[in-house]
Design brief:
The chain has 193 residues and is mainly α. The longest helix has 28 residues, at 113-140. Helix 7 crosses helix 8 (150-167). The chain is elongated. The protein is built from 9 helices and no strands. The protein has helices at 3-22, 25-32, 36-42, 46-68, 76-92, 96-106, 113-140, 150-167, 173-191.
Amino acid sequence: MHTKEKILMEGMELFATLGYNGTSMTKIADRVGLQKSSLYAHYSSKEELFMDVTTKIAADYVHFVKSTFENDGQTTAEKFHLSFQAHVKDLANHDSSIEFYNRFSSYPPKGFENSILGLLRNSEEQARAVFKEKIEKAQEAGDITDEISPEEAAHAFYGLLDGLSYETSYYNIDIIERHGEFMWKVFWRGVKA
């Protein structure tokens, strides 16, 4: 792993666990194993690093959504179901990128509200666009009803995931996956042709 990648990873973990104000360039340098002056050769400020971490998380999320459809499903139902399961497992993973996202999408640091929420909103819109494209293709194939729009289906799909994301705070993966399957059953019944 290159130094800049390590800085981003360690910065993300510290921001996620300690918050923006609790994270210092000194703490990041210590975690990476650099002198603070060497860290400043990569990033001129904590603000710049924080924005790069947010940009990376936003881009990684869109890439993740695309990758969830690159699965072994043979039918449209299986493809969408496996994509949903990948999202549920990712939510329950509790990695620092999800903790970062949850923390700063709800409580962006003062002065960063517009830029952070803009980046995150843009990545959500890109993710929904990927999903809508898959819905449109499934509608053209006659596998998904055309009584709902791809946008409606996408919002419903991500609404399920948002609901499950709250459960990660107090349920284990087995319960979350079970609840996810209940939700999936109702969702798929509503969108299939």
